[in-house]
Amino acid sequence: MAVMLNNKVGVKINSVDLSDHVSSITLNRNFDELEVTAMGDTAHRFVKGLEASSVTINFFNDTATANVLQTLQAAWGTTVACVLLQDKSSAVSATNPLYTFNILVNKTTDINGAVGELATQDITFTINGATTVATTGTF
Predict the structure, then answer these.
(1) What backbone torsions phi and psi does residue 5 show, to the nearest 5 degrees?
(2) Which class for 108: exposed (0-12), middle (13-18), buried (19 or more C-beta within 10 A)?
(3) N or C: which end of the chain has fewer CB within 10 A?
């Protein structure tokens, strides 16, 4: 059984590498289920429909140029590219695929935290379209 340490994930939003500002990420791939049950079937049958996926990213807030807050604020209300790679230190391959999709940036948490805590934001973005999974290419 292949087990991996999940601490090298690569994250780019709108071509800006924010990997060093991400503490966790979850890519949820979901598809509509379309019923294709026909007369004479003894149980319901379904096929895959349209993709309806999302990605949740926990960011460390940073106001510096080309970092989290500026990147997200520049994209407010628009759809931008997002690229993920399981292991940023390794080449794209069948065991380290490159995920590419567009996200709708329609929410941010610019101020969050308490005294003595890091400022973070945990955002779930809707994937606007289909997710492409590639076994070749560059991050």
Answers:
(1) -85, 125
(2) middle
(3) N
Phi-psi region of 94 (alpha: psi -120 to 50; beta: other; left: phi over 0): alpha
d(CA 5, CA 3): 7
- Is 86:97 a contact under the CB 8 Å cutoff? yes
Strand positions, DSSP E, the chain: 10-13, 16-17, 22-28, 31-35, 46-51, 54-60, 78-85, 98-105, 120-127, 132-134
Residue 92 · residue 138 · CB < 8 Å? yes
Give the CA angle between residues 3, 9, 119 to the nearest 5°: 120
**Predicted model pTM:** 0.87
